[in-house]
Structure formats: structure tokens, C-alpha cells
């Protein structure tokens, strides 16, 4: 069985009827009415499959003791995908949408966004393990449902990773901004102190002038000097 497209696969099976003790010289098998010799497949209902088509054929089995007659019934089975839509595809899709809900939550709400991200990742992992245990053993390693669940897990894990990167970049930006803000406050305090000293010393002299650097701020080691305008 080729389960590469599982659960959207189509399997062709055969039912063989042959003689074990009588060869072609003793008995001959044949379908009396061809495909009409098989009844009931049109109304057959299976749990996970539906019969698409069928046909009959006559063959011969070759063994060391001779040729033996054989009747073969070929029938194609299509797997019903509705069960897998309700069991696997719908829950995994809703988990991806739930992981995207964290984008509408404030970035400062670290517990809320982290809880949603971790919960969706763990739930998706459990869903993948449960789906794999119910899958039949096949000669192919990767099936269609494995690809779909892997893509869903990538989206969910990417949402969690996106918040981690965004939070880290925001913290770095706030740290640099705080450093510049502290330096601005220190320069403002220095200017205020120098102006207060200048006002106290040069109160009766009239015009005031304070020495500043090239940026327009008074350096920490600068002395406040008052000059009288001429």
C-alpha cells in the first residue's frame, strides 16, 4: 500500500480465488456474467472507505506442480476524509488561529502571551503524537498528514518565537533610551545648578552669561561665570 497521500489516498486491492489441488487439466474457473457476477459492492458501507469501482478478471497461478486456475476481483477504495477533518485538521487549524490571538495582546503582558504560546505548542505536540499512533505502518516515512501537521507546528512555534524576539528587541531599545534619558537629566540638573549660582552671584550686576560646551550644555567640571553686559 502506498500511503504517501494519506488520508487522501486511493488504494486498489485484489481478491483472488484459485484452486489448490486441481490444475487447469482438471478444472477451469470463469466468471459467468463478468462484472455482474459480483453483487453488493455498490451498496457496501465501510467505516473509513467507500468503493469507487471494481472489475473481474481470469488468471492462472504458476507453481512447480503446474498451472492452476484463478479468479481475480479488483476493487478501488477511497478513504473517507471527513473523519480526519474532524479529528485532526480542524483542531490543528484552530490551534494555529489561537496562537495568532497573542498578536492582539499587549506586548507588556508577558505572562498572557507566554502562556498562550507554550500551551498551543504543547497541545500541537500532543495532537501530532496522537495522530501518528493512529496511523498505519507504511513503507513511506512522510505522509500528507505529517506535512500538514508539521506546517501547523511551524506556525505555532514561530508565533512564540516572534514574541520572544520582539520582547528582547524592545527591552534593548528601552535600555538604550533610559541611558540617554539619564544623561539628559544630568545635563539639565547641571544647567539649573549653574544658573542658580549665577543668579545668586550676579543678581545686582544685570546681564548673565554661562560658559557652555559645543552642544549647548554646561560640562560637569565647568565653572559658572557671570559677566556684565556693556
UniProtKB/TrEMBL annotation:
Primary subcellular site in the record, as a coarse category: membrane
GO molecular function: chloride channel activity; extracellular ligand-gated monoatomic ion channel activity; transmembrane signaling receptor activity
Localization, UniProt: Cell membrane; Membrane
A single GO cellular-component term on record: plasma membrane
Highest taxon above the source species: Eukaryota
Transmembrane annotation, as ranges: 81-105, 111-129, 141-161
SUPFAM superfamilies attached to this UniProt entry: Neurotransmitter-gated ion-channel transmembrane pore, Nicotinic receptor ligand binding domain-like
Disulfide bond in keyword set: no
Membrane topology according to the record: Multi-pass membrane protein
Residue span(s) of domain Neurotransmitter-gated ion-channel transmembrane: 88-199
Domain Neurotransmitter-gated ion-channel ligand-binding: 1-80
A Pfam family per the record: Neur_chan_memb
Keywords in alphabetical order: Cell membrane, Chloride, Chloride channel, Ion channel, Ion transport, Membrane, Signal, Transmembrane, Transmembrane helix, Transport
Listed name of the protein: Gamma-aminobutyric acid type A receptor subunit pi
Organism whose genome encodes this protein: Hucho hucho
